[in-house]
Design brief:
single chain; alpha/beta; Rossmann fold; 6-stranded mixed beta sheet; 4-stranded antiparallel beta sheet; 10 strands; binds adenosine-5'-triphosphate; binds magnesium ion
Length: about 230
């Protein structure tokens, strides 16, 4: 289980996160939602160690992650797919995946087979350069890479952004499949409401640097949406 307690963080002098509390239980897919600029990406960055915290703790299965560098947090079990998916455009799909295995010191190629089974399109395009893939294919590559680090928690920042609807459905189905295998929990930042409703088990909504609503996904009704998500 991943838990954030009372996380505060700033850029320069300005406070961006003001006491964020959030948990990702085992075997669950949690959606973190909120309007633009409320601090969703910053929250993910404090989890993976790209932004420091002023206060509060980040714990994974009881291990405190505060103070650990991003690579140590990755080894501790966090897999991160950033907003805008940063794959290597000049490397092939195969090389993009291989780098993830090498960086993680893994020689386990059966894992690569397994990940390619989840994303058949990548198997087909192993020799293509990352940069020529469509947005949806790049997103799948970014997710595949994160899975190769063997995470306990997969953390994704707006995986549906700028992606065509049929590929969004495919990505949603794949995330649910990964979760249902029972080894990986998922934390998803997402602004696309229908996607959250179809894949999520629970939700958190942020506004101005704090969590303002949370609950099982069935509680994400029109009233909550109107209060916190519509512009
Ligand atoms: N590197 C940075 N330096 C200074 N301010 C930043 C930086 N990154 C983000 N901010 C500010 O912090 C606030 C929260 O940004 P953040 O990216 O976490 O929001 P978000 O909820 O992910 O938004 P979006 O939905 O647009 O992705 C915003 O006001 C943003 O302008
Ligand atoms: Mg963001």
């Amino acid at each position: 289980m991943l838990s954030l307690s009372n996380i505060s963080a700033s850029y320069g002098g300005s406070r961006i996160l003001r006491g964020v509390n959030l948990t990702v239980p085992k075997n669950s897919l949690v959606c973190l939602m909120g309007r633009n600029g409320v601090g969703k990406t910053t929250t993910l960055k404090t989890i993976v160690g790209l932004v420091g915290t002023d206060e509060g703790t980040v714990e994974l299965d009881g291990q405190k992650l505060n103070g650990l560098k991003p690579d140590a947090r990755s080894r501790a079990g966090l897999g991160y797919v950033p907003q805008g998916r940063d794959i290597f455009p000049h490397l092939t799909v195969w090389e993009n995946l291989k780098i993830s295995l090498v960086v993680h010191g893994s020689k386990d190629e059966t894992q690569l087979e397994r990940v390619l089974e989840l994303f058949p399109i990548l198997k087909e395009f192993l020799q293509r350069k990352g940069g020529v893939l469509s947005g949806g294919q790049q997103q799948q590559l970014a997710i595949a890479r994160a899975l190769l680090t063997n995470p306990k928690i997969l953390i994704l920042d707006e995986p549906t952004e700028g992606i065509q609807p049929n590929i969004i459905d495919l990505i949603g189905e794949t995330l649910v499949k990964i979760k249902n295998e029972g080894k990986i929990s998922i934390l998803l930042v997402e602004q696309y409401l229908d996607f959250c409703l179809s894949v999520g088990d629970s939700f958190f909504i942020m506004d101005r640097g704090a969590v303002v609503a949370e609950g099982p996904i069935s509680h994400l009704n029109d009233e909550v949406v109107r209060a916190h998500l519509t512009v």
